[in-house]
């Protein structure tokens, strides 16, 4: 696994930044993006990896922007071995009729079209190189969970899973492989911002999240290790499995946790 070049979209915060850190710790070189110069510069400073990490601002809603990210990675490190479509945004937990149309558009543009754009750019580049791995990030809704208030985010993520499973079929017979990452419930800006303007709902959800959820630094080493070791196209790397969730509920009384100790809804 030494020296692999990994692109992480949305690598400036949360799970993406955690993955970047863990990939660097496993001898990879990392290329990341976020939407602004400032966020990219800040993430690179936090990673403090010298010439083993680089980044440029890129917006996943634009295919041209992701092509520029690919080109930057290849100009810097010569190739891309792994491309992770991680960038994502959430929507407020509200009935669909109360979600602003621009929010619906932005969630689909980022989560669904962003994963499609990244997959197309990476697939074309990897086919030219002769090999590579593309990973797409699942989320609530991906495996069919349905909950009131989650129409926008859930539908955008269910589409990501469909898109990825289709790609797995489309790359069959080539040396490009495609997989799914499922991080479970992770204390990040994205999760907290679902509850922006509704601290009461956040307090209720917090109890469940403290049972089922984890911090970035717990989940990302596990994801990084498995995505680097994966062999078979179509692999799904899932942190929060049903047996794990059941065992968390059974042992909840024995454990006191607050994975959101530093979080304020809407503060990001
Ligand atoms: N947290 C969870 O519980 C959870 C659970 C399941 C799945 N996920 C998925 O995991 C992924 C990461 O989520 P997270 O919780 O780490 O979120 P986060 O902390 O809010 O980070 C989101 C990242 O995406 C970037 N981003 C957003 N829009 C972008 C765009 N248009 N172009 C480029 N970058 C963009 C942000 O960068 P800038 O702000 O610098 O642009 C940031 O780096 C998402 O796909 C999410 O759906 C999260």
From TrEMBL:
Recorded protein name is NAD(P)-dependent dehydrogenase (Short-subunit alcohol dehydrogenase family)
Superkingdom is Bacteria
Q: Origin organism of this chain?
A: Nocardioides soli
InterPro entries, per the entry: Chl_b_Red, KR_dom, NAD(P)-bd_dom_sf, SDR_fam
Q: Known CDD domains for this protein?
A: SDR_c
The GO terms this record gives for MF are: chlorophyll(ide) b reductase activity
Which PANTHER family would you find in this protein's record?
Answer: CHLOROPHYLL(IDE) B REDUCTASE NYC1, CHLOROPLASTIC-RELATED (PTHR24314:SF21), NON-SPECIFIC LIPID TRANSFER PROTEIN-RELATED (PTHR24314)
Q: Which Gene Ontology BP terms does the record give?
A: chlorophyll catabolic process; PSII associated light-harvesting complex II catabolic process
Residues forming the Ketoreductase domain are: 4-143
Family designation? Belongs to the short-chain dehydrogenases/reductases (SDR) family.
């Amino acid at each position: 696994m030494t020296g692999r070049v990994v692109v992480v979209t949305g690598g400036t915060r949360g799970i993406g930044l955690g993955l970047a850190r863990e990939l660097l710790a496993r001898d990879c070189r990392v290329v990341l993006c976020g939407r602004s110069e400032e966020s990219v510069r800040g993430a690179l400073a936090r990673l403090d990896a010298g010439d083993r990490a680089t980044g440029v601002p890129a917006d996943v809603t634009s295919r041209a922007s992701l092509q520029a990210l690919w080109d930057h990675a290849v100009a810097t490190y010569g190739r891309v071995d792994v491309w992770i479509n991680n960038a994502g945004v959430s929507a407020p937990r509200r009935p669909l009729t109360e979600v602003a149309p621009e929010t619906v558009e932005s969630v689909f543009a980022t989560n669904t079209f962003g994963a499609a754009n990244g997959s197309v750019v990476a697939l074309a580049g990897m086919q030219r190189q002769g090999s590579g791995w593309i990973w797409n990030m699942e989320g609530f809704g991906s495996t069919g969970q349905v909950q009131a208030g989650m129409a926008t985010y859930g539908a955008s993520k269910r589409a990501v899973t469909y898109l990825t499973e289709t790609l797995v079929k489309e790359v069959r017979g080539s040396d490009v492989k495609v997989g799914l990452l499922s991080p479970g419930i992770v204390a990040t800006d994205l999760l907290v911002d679902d509850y922006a303007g509704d601290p009461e709902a956040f307090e209720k959800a917090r109890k469940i999240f403290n049972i089922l959820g984890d911090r970035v630094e717990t989940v990302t080493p596990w994801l990084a290790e498995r995505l680097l070791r994966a062999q078979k196209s179509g692999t799904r790397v899932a942190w929060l499995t049903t047996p794990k969730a059941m065992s968390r509920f059974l042992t909840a009384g024995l454990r006191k946790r607050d994975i959101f100790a530093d979080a304020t809804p809407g503060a990001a």
